[in-house]
Predict the structure.
Amino acid sequence: MIMTNEKNYKSPLDSIDVSFSNYVAMRKREESLHMEDGVPDYAFDLDYELRRRMEQIPHFTGLCKKISATIETRAIQIYNQQAVAVSPEQYGEIYSMGTDCAKRLGIGTPNIFVYPSPQINAFTCASDTISPMIVLYSGIVDRLKPAELKCVIAHECGHIHNEHTIYQNVVGEILNSGSGILGFFLSVANMALMQFWTRACEITADRAAVICADNVEDAVNVQKKLFSGATFNAEFQENLNLDALKAQLDVTLNNPSRLYEIMSDHPSGLRRIFCMKEFEECEIYYKWRTEKKKPGSIGRNKEETDERCRKLVNIWNNAQAKNYRYEEKS
Ligand SMILES: [Zn+2]
């Protein structure tokens, strides 16, 4: 297995202006508009709070950044051998999706690879926001419409924008290795906290997808398709009824089986769909996409939106989520 700290991979994207000065100028513009205390203003507060707690673990953040850089370098070299590197000349439509999302969020253009696999999956293992990496499995490219695929890329860009992956890379390594020496530094309680946090990260990244989406329904349709298997009968899946899905979620909430999700690093697709619909009604969304504000738009403040989403993702207190009612726009 290749292990190096040197980023010696020559990407077809090297001709693109990803200079540090250009990045800093772009990032400053975005920060003045959409950053609060170094965190994007759309970040789900549960994600934000837990991230701050992890930063308080001595030496943990620095350790994660160093390990993460090594993991990303190794991954770039491996995927450059096993996947198609996206560029203006190679899968140009996907390249444009990446540049569009990156530009909107204010991060560097991602190096996207399309990996040959029927799995419906995508991920990033970026160690910084300057020249991040995203992998799309060919299965997800095949099964989604272009506008939906853009939302998947935007979701991964959201993880990059919020620097989730510097911690998630390390969590993944620990879980894959069955703890190992790194586990020595992390107590069981901290590991449980991190799984709780990774679920909150998904809500933040889904908000990035909503912000970048041409239409919010494209982002919702991604979850509908992932939830129902992303078969080729797309129309069937796009017509999934939200009220019926909420009734389905209520059945889970009435049963201790809901605790199954504690072992998961992703919230259920149903919870994610409703959290995205909530963010669509948040004033922060309209701050990013002023052109989307229409007469009758609710425009709840960030605190209220986060509170409503907390009810939806709360596994322990199921009464909160059961009392949640999604209000369709009139
Ligand atoms: Zn994610």
